[in-house]
Amino acid sequence: MQDNKNNATAKAFPELSPTYKDPHQYPPGVAYLDSQYVPISQAKISVLDWGFLHSDATYDVMHAWEGRLFRPELYLDRFFAGMGKLKMSIPYDRAQVLEIVMNAVALSGLKNAYVELICTRGCSPTFSRDPREAINRFMVFVVPFSSVANPEQLQRGLHVAVAERTRIPPSSVDPSIKNYHWLDLVAGLYDAYEKRAETALLLDDQGGIAEGPGFNVFIVKDGQLATPDYSVLPGITRRTVMDLCQELALSCSARALSPQELTNADEVFITSTAGGVMPVTKVNQNNIGDGLVGPICKRIQQAYWDKHTDNEWSTLVIYPDD
Ligand code: PLP
User: Fold this and answer.
1) 225: buried, middle or exposed (CB in 10 Å: 19+, 13-18, 0-12)?
2) How far is the CA of 215 from the centre of ligand 1 (A)?
3) Pocket test for ligand 1, best of 203, 216, 218 (most atoms within 8 A of CB)
4) What pTM value is reported for the model?
5) Which end of the chain has fewer CB atoms at under 10 Å, N or C?
6) Atom 3 in ligand 1: which residue has the minimum CA distance?
7) What is the reported pLDDT for 23?
8) How many CA atoms are closer than 13 Å to the CA of 188, on its beta-carbon side?
């Protein structure tokens, strides 16, 4: 006979109001977890997972563009380095993780895809407080590509505010480990909305510009580029911009960047896997330069997307229907 003790029938309580929104709606997509590929709506984790309870996780996000994965090796480097620093391990090596990613993208059928790899601390069978007893969990999910900036913002440039909030200092959380400690970034976003901006840049604990919710920042002054080097995630798009600067013979340095340098810049842009190179034309409601998207930003943006069809920078995904 079936044991019903843990099988209480789900009942909506209190009764659903007409304005109730179903939280279980999903974009199209595919996930890999527990050695299986499943539709995104079926990818579930335990509420006991330390990744969920304590943000004890690392993750990475790469993307497929027109059916090609962009610089996957760089993302795998960062993901495996993060797991190592957090003393996590998974039963797959780099080649196997890449194969899982390729399969998940192919099964999703999405040519332009946002591809997230996650390793959580997991749970221990006894709910032990000792992280060494937890079984680490690896998962991947693939959903349609998404961008920090929408098409209109990409065209006219984003409006950014420098938030009151400071970024969690590197002495507390190592920013080179891509992590889910986002409460400062989300609070920064709300600061920015109050200042009638569309997104935020946070200061570091020394008063310099750090980064924003999911992106790094660059300025251009007198033809020279600069990006903060402290209290930031070493973004792969940031790295790609630096590589492109070398190809384009542009000078670019990673160094401390003051809020004054940001507001006095000729051009500002932000970088993220979610959107690439995205122009900023207002900071704290003031125009950057003449308030139009600048020529160096446009040039780098063009070079960035051109590389997506270059065999040396991208890897072809074989889809079942191709
Ligand atoms: N900074 C933070 C805090 C991020 O979360 C991200 C990406 O999500 C970035 C920067 C940009 O990194 P990447 O270019 O690797 O997407």
Assistant:
1) buried
2) 5
3) 216
4) 0.94
5) N
6) 214
7) 83
8) 26
8-56 tens-digit pLDDT: 566 667 777 888 888 889 999 999 999 999 999 999 999 999 999 999 9
Distance CA 36, CA 149 (A): 33
Domains and CATH numbers, the chain: 27-144 (3.30.470.10), 151-308 (3.20.10.10)
Give the pLDDT band of residue 223 (cuts 50, 70, 90). very high
CA of 92 to the centre of ligand 1 (A): 24
Angle at 89 between CA 87 and CA 90, to 5 degrees: 160
Ligand 1 atom with the smallest distance to the CA of 213 is: 3
SS (HEC) of 222-264: CCEEEECCCCCCCCHHHHHHHHHHHHCCCCEEECCCCHHHHHC
Q: What is the DSSP string of 259-279?
A: HHHHHT-SEEEEEETTTEEEE
Cβ < 6 A, ligand 1 pocket: 61, 211, 214-216, 233, 235-238, 271-273
Q: What angle do CA 313, 319, 321 make, to 5 degrees?
A: 145
305: helix, strand or coil: helix
The DSSP string of 173-217 is S-TTS-----HHHHHHHHHHHHTT-SEEEEE-TTSSB--BTTBEE
The residue written with tokens 């080097």 in the block is 229
Q: Which residues pair with 138 in a beta bridge?
A: 119
Going by C-alpha positions, the residue among 177, 159, 168 that lies closest to residue 210 is: 168
Q: Is the peptide bond before 14 cis (omega within 30 degrees of 0)?
A: yes
DSSP, collapsed to helix, strand or coil, labels residue 3 as coil
pLDDT score at 111:
98
DSSP code, position 165: E
Both tokens of residue 87? 């003393």
What is the torsional sign of CA 205, 259, 276, 312?
negative
- Distance in Å, CA 142 to ligand 1 centroid: 17
